[in-house]
Design a protein that fits this description.
- The complex is a heterotrimer of chains A (335), B (787) and C (213).
- By secondary structure, chain A is an alpha+beta fold.
- Chain A has helices at residues 12-24, 36-43, 80-86, 92-100, 104-109, 112-117, 123-126, 165-172, 190-193, 273-279, 286-295, 309-324, and strands at 5-7, 29-32, 51-54, 64-66, 72-75, 176-180, 187-189, 212-218, 224-231, 242-251, 254-263, 270-271.
- Helices cover 29% and strands 19% of the residues of chain A.
- Chain C has 213 residues and is an alpha+beta fold.
- Helix content of chain C is 39%, strand content 12%.
- Chain C has 8 helices and 5 strands, in the order H-H-H-E-E-H-E-E-E-H-H-H-H.
- A 5-stranded mixed sheet of chain C has the order 2-1-5-3-4, with helices on both faces.
- In chain C, helix 2 runs antiparallel to helix 3 (42-53) and helix 5 crosses helix 8.
- The chains are: A alpha+beta (335), B alpha+beta (787), C alpha+beta (213).
């Protein structure tokens, strides 16, 4: 890793100013939470900033706040461990997504905002030996190269999969992401936070230079059901081959406001609209869940080596729907 | 338990009540074979002068037992000093500039900016061409790791990129870019099976075939009632020792002092002595703790030679420790393979002939043959083998735990499974039909019972019921055979030193790569001297001690233990002479147990006897005598696996593995069982996860890490039942043989065959990824690929 | 090839016992050496030094295994590097340097983290427990003893990280299920294949009523 100057802001505003000032002075700078993901890229020389602005020591936006409505606000600096342990009963989709997002050691350090803002794990992007489209190159090297772990949806420009498991859950839960920037912050729907490569090839989210995620807000409507499931080759930590989060309101036995979001399959957490429409307003059972799984494949454009992911997407959607409905999916092993 | 122990001790007293007359060398009759109730065999062997007669059948008081490893405490406290951990005042940290290209001409190397960093020294061997991604170009060292890294980034190398070939299939084609213009001479390492380097034809990138075999293959196929042919492939597996390759070098006067993360203290010494034109006494290599090796850590390596050169140039100690990426790219791997196996068979399942062909790529190295298994594992009467190496622009392969055998086992055991299925035979019955080994037959029987092989039909029924009920889970049982061989490192030698205060030291230069040789060495000596195991101070991992084997080919135990026992017996004999004088009783009538010499009601303590030694120290030498003639050198094993396959996602969970092995007379059962568990877990990882992925266009390895190069973890670990047959092979005085390799040979094949039982598919490619399972199940969607 | 400038005596003994004063003094005098040798090189040398030794060493103070420690480090220094190179605590291993193998696991305020993905300055003011802090040669911790008894180790390189992970689990959960144990060490890779021993050791230590490693 190249040497850098460590900047220690005293407030979030201070941090945003440091980043903005650096930008104005054409000094490369990066914000750092726990640094678990940033350090990986620094060590790979994937980037070599002159300044690193440390957010980890800031005392605000570092806890989970509960409101009487059941809504919660999660500070940007809350660790994945704290979320997986603290929100298990209220927001199982998010808790389980955070539980599966990394090894125990990394979950203990990594922050929610860091998980949302992490860069892709695509091997062409991560290695400093390749110049891919995202790094100013002329083409996406994965599309015609080794793409077994790449996108099966929305991969026309760049075939990364968005690596954030928490992001999949937050889009399913229709979370709002609050930011702070020198010119004033804003609140974005989670689905709008993530941007497709066609919108910005150099970033995976809508943050502007100097803009920081500070808080994540979740509503808890009456009868909220949610779940997150993933399919991995290895059961010890492994990046999912497919994952999904779903949420709906149970209203008289029917599912309302259904959101089905697929992860590890597209450059952004990917809403399976056709599956959502199929399920909307119906009572979820095994047959409907299986049909929803198939419907979730609509619009898929698999690459040379990743068509195997499609049955996984169908399976994970089916299983996640059944999990949220509290129904068995057939994988319960008898002793 | 306690009763048994006492009984054993009594027996031992009876045994040690004789001074060892065999130590003079004699022809003796020994009993070999499986312990009762199996019938044994008596053979006459001639002992080498000075070598004691082998252990008779029956339990022994110390050896053969379980106990914690002696170096456990220092390791669990984090106080074992590995090569990575060496820190010396003034020490420099070394790094290597490596090629980002698969094949390139080096146009220029500019180290001037790096040299301006304080304290940097540079070693530029002036290479003009690089042949793989990650090949070393320039080495340097600097006072801090950070400075070394900055220097590394400051070196500017200009390349002219040349065409490359990085896949087995592409490299075999006519017109493929050539990796070598000239014929390549094979280099052997301590990790290879013993034998001469082979001289073979070379056409394009293909070197070979190397032909071998046994019996009359034409006759075998003529007698066959049917033939079966299939092709299997396996991927490149990298060793991934947790401690990467590392070497610390310091010049002290004209002597090169080294600590190495190695499997071969002496092979490192010899290589450095050769490179630096030093006599063997001027190179000191220490290797007390090595953080894993698995076949990749024999010689000094280019990185080690760089370290020593940099240390000389700087006049300071230098530590070179590869990072994980360098380890994957340059430090060795198990070559991939393409194997064609054709069997001729009778309708009763008897194989009459096998025709076997393999191609594999070890990148820029040789040694990819996988034909050993088909020749040795079963009783096939006629076998023809043709093995070829294919060069590619990739990092060198090298020995890895049972070279060639997991690949060959997968090929042959897949063919046997297919044959059983074709003939409608039980897969185990088919194997028994072709297995004349008494030891292995005993193993099949034990293992089948433990895994519950008789449940197989019932499991098939349950799978059908699960499918009908809409459950995606399918269960399966499978098995496969293991074969390995007893190799011996000749010249292994052990010193036992007994001091006047009664303390005992055992010295041998052998390294500990995880097998834990300190413990069995101490057990053997403790048993012969009637002392507690903890009282034996075992000193290893230093080239100044007597020669010990490199830990490869599962030779460590088999090479070392007989020499340890000889040394301990000789030491005991000398003590008996002293005790004889003190007790006034002939040595042959004296017993030794629990630190006391006794005869005719008179006793004298071990310490007292030691205090009367004529010199300050009694030194006894034990040499590794050559193996007795006549006995089988093959080591047999059998493994069974139980899996659950999720046919909706292709994800496999291994639930249980039963491993039945022959380890002769194990000295330290705890260690043997740990080795078996380790071999199995590497085998499962090889079966399901491990695959080096290369970008064809650039020739670069895409997953030189442990994130996308996937190795098995805690949640992928099944229940493991290691079982040993009680076997007396009769090759050496301790019936000792190794276990490291036999345990990993059959696991992948057993897992593959259990997946076949669970799903009805026939896995023919490793790793058996979810993608491959879904493909075989016909679940990959038909929709066309859009690029 | 230009002759490499030699570091002055003050920096030679690094990385043992790096002090802020020593390092800064070292930097100053190295620049002096370069400028005395060739003035034209000064600017470049200064730049390279900054790259080599950082944008200046930043002090850090933390508690390691109950002992207050101070040091001064370049901002890019990881906790693993500081522990191993500056404080000689080499029981913490670096296996992959990317947080994937867990050999570098230490407790930060009682919680297991990858010290290779933690900058030393992020541990400022906090309590770090390494493998050396869990037991002494005279008295192994109950978890360490259980590891030895169950032969939960082979080469031993992953073992410190495994022991730290298991100790943290038992400190938090005195009766872990089999699933809990597997989960707790799921970020610790062992290539020798000692997992079943680790599970057994963790169970044994739990049964022996370990409250804290």
């Amino acid at each position: 890793m190249k040497s850098f100057e460590r900047l220690q802001p005293t407030s979030w505003e201070d941090a945003a100013n440091m980043l903005t000032t650096a930008k104005e002075k054409k000094i490369s700078s990066e914000a750092k939470g726990a640094g678990t993901e940033l350090l990986d890229r620094l060590k790979e020389y994937n980037l070599a900033p002159d300044q690193v602005v440390d957010l980890r020591r800031l005392t605000t936006h570092s806890s989970i706040q509960r409101k009487s409505s059941g809504a919660v606000s999660i500070g940007a600096l809350v660790t994945l461990s704290a979320i997986s342990e603290g929100l298990k009963s209220e927001f199982p989709a998010l808790a389980d997504a955070c539980l599966g997002a990394a090894t125990p050691q990394i979950r203990n350090a990594a922050t929610l905002a860091g998980n949302l803002c992490q860069r892709p794990r695509c091997w062409y992007f991560r290695s400093s030996e390749f110049q891919c489209l995202k790094k100013g190159g002329v083409e996406c090297l994965a599309k015609s190269g080794e793409n077994e772990f790449h996108a099966v949806f929305g991969n026309n420009t760049c075939a990364i999969v968005h690596p954030s498991a928490a992001g999949v859950a937050l889009v399913a839960l229709n979370a709002r992401i609050e930011t702070l920037a020198p010119g004033g912050g804003r609140t974005l729907a989670a689905a709008d936070f993530f941007v497709r490569p066609e919108v910005d090839i150099f970033a995976e989210n809508a943050l502007r230079p100097g803009e920081l995620v500070v808080e994540i807000h979740l509503e808890k409507p009456e009868g909220l059901r949610s779940a997150y499931r993933k399919i991995k080759q290895k059961q010890s930590f492994d990046w999912p081959l497919a994952d999904a989060a779903v949420s709906w309101r149970a209203e008289g036995g029917a599912a309302r406001d259904v959101r089905i979001v697929i992860g590890s399959s597209a450059p952004v957490p990917f809403r399976a609209k056709a599956a959502e429409e199929l399920v909307e307003g119906k009572r979820i059972d095994a047959a409907l869940a299986a049909r929803a799984g198939q419907a979730a494949l609509e619009g898929a454009t698999p690459l040379g080596k990743n068509a195997y992911k499609l049955p996984m997407v169908a399976a994970v959607v089916r299983r996640t729907l059944l999990a949220a409905a509290g129904l068995p999916d057939g994988t319960e092993e008898s002793a | 338990m306690a009763e048994e122990k006492k009984e054993n001790e009594k027996k031992s007293q009876e045994k040690t009540s004789l001074k060892v007359p065999e130590a003079t060398g004699a022809a003796v009759t020994i009993e070999i074979g499986l312990a009762p109730p199996h019938p044994s065999k008596k053979i006459s062997v001639s002992l080498s002068p000075g070598d004691p007669a082998p252990y008779p059948m029956g339990p022994r008081p110390v050896t053969g037992g379980r106990r914690p490893r002696l170096d456990g405490p220092i390791k669990v406290m984090g106080r074992a000093v590995y090569t990575h951990d060496v820190r010396k005042p003034g020490m420099l940290h070394a790094r290597i500039v490596r090629s980002p290209h698969a094949h390139a001409k080096i146009l220029s190397i500019d180290t001037s900016a790096a040299e301006k960093i304080a304290g940097v020294v540079i070693e530029n061997p002036g290479k003009t061409v690089v042949r793989y991604h990650g090949e070393a170009v320039v080495a340097l060292a600097a006072p801090t790791p950070a400075a070394a890294e900055d220097a590394l980034r400051a070196v500017k190398v200009a390349y002219d990129v040349l065409p490359h070939t990085v896949s087995l299939a592409a490299a075999r084609k006519e017109g493929a870019p050539l990796v070598f213009q000239k014929a390549v001479e094979e280099k052997r390492s301590a990790g290879d099976e013993p034998g001469e380097a082979s001289k073979l034809p070379q056409t394009g990138n293909v070197r070979g075939p190397k032909n071998s075999g046994k019996g009359d293959v034409d006759k075998g196929f003529a007698e066959a009632e049917g033939t079966l042919e299939l092709i299997t492939t396996t991927s490149v597996q990298t060793h991934v020792p947790l401690e990467t390759h590392a070497l610390f070098a310091e010049w002290v006067g004209d002597t090169l002092e080294v600590q190495a993360s190695t499997q071969g203290t002496f092979s490192v010494r010899d290589e450095l002595a050769e490179v630096f034109k030093l006599s063997k006494d001027k190179v000191i290599v220490r290797a007390e703790f090595t953080g894993g090796g698995f076949g990749a850590k024999f010689g000094a390596g280019d990185y080690g030679v760089f370290a020593a050169k940099l240390a000389k140039k700087a006049g300071k100690p230098v530590l070179m420790a590869l990072d994980r990426k360098e380890e994957h790219l340059s430090a060795g791997n198990r070559p991939d393979s393409w194997n064609r196996v054709k069997l001729g068979y009778k309708k009763d399942g008897t194989v009459t002939a096998a025709d076997y062909e393999s191609f594999g790529t070890a990148g820029v190295a040789t040694g990819t043959g996988t034909g050993g298994f088909v020749k040795a594992a079963y009783g096939f009467p006629a076998v023809k083998v043709a093995e070829s190496d294919v060069f590619t622009h990739l990092g060198p392969g090298c020995a890895m735990r049972a070279p060639g055998h997991p690949q060959g086992c997968f090929a042959v055991e897949t063919a046997l499974e297919e044959l059983a299925s074709r003939l409608g035979m039980d897969p185990l019955a088919l194997r028994l039909k072709n297995d004349p080994s008494e030891v292995r037959r005993a193993e099949w029987e034990l293992g089948a019972k433990e895994i519950g092989w008789s449940r197989r039909a019932e499991i098939s029924k349950a799978n059908a019921a699960a499918a009908a009920a809409g459950s995606p889970l399918r269960r399966g049982l499978g098995c496969a055979a293991s074969i390995w061989y007893t190799f011996v490192a000749p010249g292994s030698q052990v010193f036992v030193r007994i001091h006047r205060d009664g303390s005992v030291e055992v010295e041998n230069g052998v390294q500990d790569i995880g097998g834990g040789p300190r413990t069995p060495i101490a057990m053997v000596v403790a048993e012969e001297l009637g002392l507690p195991v903890e009282k034996i101070n075992v000193k290893i991992g230093d080239s100044r001690y007597p020669f010990g084997p490199a830990s490869g080919g599962s030779v460590t135990t088999g090479s070392l233990i007989p020499a340890v026992r000889a040394a301990a017996v000789h030491a005991r004999d000398k003590l008996l002479d002293v005790a004889s004088k003190l007790l006034g009783v002939p040595a042959s009538e004296i017993a030794l147990a629990e630190g006391v010499f006794s005869a005719k009601g008179k006793t004298v303590e071990f310490r007292k006897v030691c205090s009367r030694l004529s010199g300050e120290t009694l030194v006894a030498t034990g040499d590794r005598a050559k193996d007795y003639d006549g006995a089988d050198t093959r080591i047999f094993g059998a493994q069974f696996a139980e899996v659950v396959v999720d046919v909706e996602t292709g994800v496999v969970a291994v639930k249980k593995v039963v491993a039945v092995h022959d380890c002769g007379q194990p000295v330290w059962k705890t260690g043997v069982e740990s080795q078996i568990r380790g071999g199995i877990l590497q085998g499962i990882s090889y079966a399901l996860f491990e695959e080096r992925i290369v970008d064809e266009r650039s020739g670069r390895v895409l997953n030189p890490n442990v994130e996308f190069y996937k190795i098995l973890g805690s949640k992928d670990t099944p229940e493991i039942v290691p079982l040993l047959v009680d076997f007396y092979p009769g090759k050496n005085n301790a019936h000792a043989r190794g276990i490291g390799e036999p345990a990993t040979v059959p696991t992948a094949a057993a897992v593959a065959n259990s997946i076949a039982h669970a799903t009805g598919i026939r896995p023919t490619a490793l790793p058996i990824t979810p993608a491959r399972i879904l493909d075989a199940l016909g679940k990959r969607p038909k929709r066309e690929v859009r690029a | 090839m230009a002759k490499s400038p030699q570091p002055p005596e003050e920096t030679r003994d690094e990385p043992k016992g790096v002090t802020r004063r020593g390092l800064i003094k070292g930097i100053a005098s190295v620049v002096g050496v370069a400028s005395a040798g060739a003035t034209t090189l000064l600017v470049e040398a200064r730049h390279e030094l900054q790259a080599a030794n950082g944008n200046g060493a930043i002090p850090v103070s933390l508690t390691i295994n109950g002992v207050a420690r101070q040091g001064s480090f370049d901002a890019r220094t990881t906790l693993a590097e500081a522990l191993r190179d500056a404080w000689g605590l080499t029981g913490t291993k670096v296996g992959c340097d990317r947080g994937a193998c867990g050999a570098c696991t230490v407790l930060l305020d009682g919680t297991p983290v990858n010290s290779c993905l933690t900058l030393v300055h992020d541990a400022d003011g906090r309590k770090v427990t390494t493998i050396e802090g869990l037991g002494s040669p005279e008295a192994m911790s109950p978890v360490q003893k259980a590891f030895v008894d169950a032969d939960a180790l082979q080469c031993g390189f992953c073992t410190p990280g495994m022991v730290v992970s298991c100790s943290a689990l038992l400190a938090k959960n005195s009766r872990p299920s089999a699933h809990d144990v597997r989960e707790a060490v799921s970020g610790n890779l062992c290539r020798c294949g000692t997992y079943t021993g680790v599970f057994a050791a963790c169970d044994a230590a739990a049964k022996a009523g370990v409250k804290h490693g």
